Each structure stands twice: as structure tokens, then as C-alpha cells.
Amino acid sequence: MTRPAVLEIRDLRTYFYSRAKEAFIRSVDGVSLAVAAGETLGVVGESGSGKSVTALSILSLVGGSPGVITGTIEFAGATGAGTARRNLLEDLGRYVRVSERDGRIVAVTKDEPGWRARVERALTGVRGKEIAMIFQNPKSSLNPFLTVGQQISEAIRLHTPVTDAGEAKQRAIDWLERVRMDSPRLRFDQYPDGLSGGMCQRAMIAMALASEPSLLIADEPTTGLDATIQSRVVALLAELKSEFGVTTLLISHDVRVVSRLADTVAVMYGGTVMEHGPARDVLAPGSEPKHPYTAALLASLPSAQTNGGRRTVDGRLPVIRGEVVDTMDVPRGCRFYARCDRVTEAIRARCLGQEPALATVAAGHRIRCHLYAGETCAETRPG
Question: Is residue 381 included in any domain, yes or no?
Fold first, then answer.
């Protein structure tokens, strides 16, 4: 990473306690990532891999008690200047007491009011202004009792120097125009229920960008939209990226969306990062080296050349066998071991009993797999 990091996450852990099963759900478990100024970092993986919880943890929007976030989330704003860097999780550890046994959390005591008050103080002026987020379901994310225009205008007046209602309205209409909303003046006065899912998503994108954020988090921005609308939203995001160069954290289970928009990619599985590197290396089907999980994800993509997908010898589409690892019962070895088809006898014992480090295999390219353990001896800082 040659440009300064706007966001740098180190050893992020977000756990929730399940009272029914008397166990901790390790939704995010030791994630380290960085997003450079002006770049898009794409995060991919199956449902349940920890992608969305990672995004919500950045803004401390996770619910659940006693949910716990630990680690470091350094945010530097638009310039990435060292003097502006701050840890969004600073001092949160004061409100939590964690008991561990054999390296695993077994009990948590949490001062919930103190924790929440500290989060609000730390993130005042950050949420919505410096870091804006596009959520998965645009219809449920918009207030049904306010018009689209009122909501965008409110964001502009809260998070930009504009305070005049008339000027805020004009800027809101301008942003609706920029996101290619048809009849922007008409849509300004409509309620979310009167708009399609694609229109609501455009309104959400307009609201997020109208605040002029340093970092945009897009969490599954095409989920729930039909194929045609998905394609249009992706094209819009690509156009806006080219025009504004906003630093973006893009989360999606759709590898094709990420490959079109991302500069760098992180592949998550079981709450942690399995591979991280330039998009051209990580998502190119024929490139090596590649984590077995990444390779399996790419192999399962539909292909126009084979009438919908690459097929096995028996005519079936390839799938990743087995189920996603249960983050309440994470194995001590490699999290992907039970589903991996590249395990050799030489590394089987290590795969079973020792979690691999995130090893550097090329400049800016790291893989968490014992097949590449000889490349480096220690974890490196994200970059």
C-alpha cells in the first residue's frame, strides 16, 4: 500500500454471547485490514463469514449484550495524515472484563451504559459524516414517515456547512440527479414506500455521498434487487468511484460485483481473513498462489461459456462441500480444513491442530494456509 490508509483495522474481534447455548459466537475473530485513500477494498465470502459484522463494528453498530468489540480501528479521514489518526475503539476495554481459558473467552462482564456512552462520545461527528454507510436493505433503512428529499436534506444540514433549508433541498436534488434517479424533483417529495428497491438504493447512495464522507461503507448494496437493477447499481457505483474517488469498503457475497469495483480484496471465512491482496491476483481464476477457499468460490461462479456454470464430469455445477464453520465452535486448526480439497499428508497434522498465519506470498498478497506457511514466519501489518 503506497497511499496512506484511511482505515486500518488490527486484530478486530466481535463476539456475542448466546444464552441459549451458553457459548460465545465469534462472529469476527482476529481480522486485520486496511483501506488506502481513494481505493476500494472488497470483502467477499459466504453468508456467515463475518463481513457485515466487520462493517458494523467499525461504527459500533453491533447489538446484543454482552457483545464485545476488541482490537484497534484507526481512522484518519480524507488525508490519511498521521496527526488526524484516532482509534475508534479507544478506552472501550475499560468497560469490559473478559475471562479466558486455554486462549478462549469463557465469560464477559460488561458495563453496558458506560460502554454505550463512550461509543457515542467517540463516534459523534464520525457516523454519517466522516464515515457513511449504505445498508443491505434500502427500504428498511429509510424512514418511512419522511420523504426521500427530507432525509437527504437533513443529512446535508447535519453533516456539511450548509444550513439553509432551500440550499439543502437544491443540493439533495442535485445528488438525486448525480445518482441517475429519474425525475429527481418528483422523487424528492415521495416517501420510500412509493419507490422501487432500486430507487431506494439510489436514494441511500445519494444520502451517503451528500455528506461528503472520507470513507463509504457499502454493505451488500445489490442484495434483494433483481438482476437488471443490480447491474445498473453496480454501473452507478463504478461511475461514482471514477468521478469522486471516494475511499470505499465494499462488502458482498457476489464475487463479480467485487471484481468489477475493487482495487484490493479480502476473502473472509469463519470470522477471519483467509486471503488479502490486489483484486487482479486474488480474483483472477487462473492466477496462483490462491487460498483453497478462494479457488473454490471462483470455481462455483456461473459461466456463460458453459450455459450457466462450470460443470463437473457428472454434469453438475461445482459446489463447496460441507457447511460454513460454526463460529461458536471454531476448530483449533484451519477453519476451512473440513471443506478443503487440497490438504496433503505433509500438512494434515498442522491443518488439524494449528491455525495458519496470514503469510505473505507476494508484494501486498497474503494467504492464511499451511500450503504457503514457508513464505513468511510472522504476520505482517495490513498493506
Answer: no
Residue 21 belongs to a domain: yes
Q: Residue 153 phi/psi, 5° resolution?
A: -60, -40
**339: nearest Cα among 378, 282, 300:** 300
How far apart are the C-alpha atoms of 199 and 92, rounded to whole Å? 38
Question: What does the pLDDT read at residue 103?
Answer: 65
Express each pLDDT in 33-46 by its tens digit.
999 999 999 999 99
**43, 32 contact by CB (below 8 A):** no
Q: Is the pLDDT of residue 50 over 80?
A: yes
What pLDDT is stored for residue 124 in this prediction?
86
Instruction: Concatenate the DSSP letters of all residues of 265-295 into one string.
Output: EEEEETTEEEEEEEHHHHS-TT-SS--HHHH
Q: Which of 199, 178, 186, 190 is nearest to 150 (CA)?
A: 190
SS3 198: helix
Q: What is the CATH number of the domain that holds 72?
A: 3.40.50.300
* Structural domains of the chain, count: 1
Residue 342: which pLDDT band, with cuts at 50, 70 and 90? Answer: very high
Cell numbers at residue 113, please?
A: 451504559
| pLDDT of 320 higher than 60 | yes
Domain around 120: 5-130+253-375
Residue 64 has pLDDT above 60, yes or no: yes
Asked whether residue 184 is domain-assigned, the answer is no
| Cα separation values, 360 from 40, 181, 373, Å | 21, 44, 9
Kindly state whether residue 85 falls inside one of the protein's structural domains: yes
